[in-house]
Amino acid sequence: MEKPAKKISTSYGLYLGISLILIVVLAYAFDLSLFTKWWFGISLLLFVVIMASMATSKAKKASTSLFKFKDAFGAYFLTVFIGTFISLLFGIILFNFVDSEAAETLTELTIESTRDMMEGFGAPEAQINETLQQLQEENQYSLLNQLKGYGFQLIMYAVIGLIVALVFKEKDTTNA
User: What are the angstrom distances between the C-alpha of 145 and each of 55, 72, 106, 140?
Assistant: First the structure.
């Protein structure tokens, strides 16, 4: 990846990270239950993908050579990696050091919303109870679990990034 593309992706990654922190702070301050809403998670996912796609587009415009698949994916993924890593660090600090009670409250809210969702889908009571017991026993906001979640997020964003890279890559017309 060219130096201007790295600079653009890094800048967008920082903007993304700061934006995600702001969103988390607002949700934390106004209504913790937002973290348990499916549409909130989807909105964050779309926001990350849009920001990373914008960075990829800008990197393509700044490119002085053929913008290959590798360049497009690199610009996208660098933006996602930086932005979500900043957000991860903030989440770890917030839920483990600043306000660990918020993590406990979120776990309770998650258990309630999971029960409602599973009952809505008609899941058997035994399965509901087993799932809820697992949620109670595991601290979703521990350092290890947040790092695991981050790893799975990166994999999901990488798969989306492959599609974005296909859209933004330039074809080599000299061999045609």
Answer: 29, 30, 15, 6
Nearest CA to 16 out of 76, 77, 84, 73 is that of 84
CB atoms within 10 A of CB 107: 17
- Amino acid identity for residue 23 in this structure: I
Distance CA 168, CA 172 (A): 13
pTM: 0.87
- Radius of gyration over alpha carbons of the chain, in Å? 19
DSSP for 39-79 reads HHHHHHHHHHHHHHHHHHHHHHHH-SS---HHHHHHHHHHH
- Taking only the tens place, the pLDDT of each residue in 17-44 is 999 999 999 999 999 999 989 899 999 9
Token digits of residue 4 = 């201007």
pLDDT in tens, 144-168: 989 999 999 999 999 999 999 999 9
Selection from 96, 99, 129, 132 nearest residue 32 by Cα: 99
Please tell me what DSSP assigns to residue 109. H
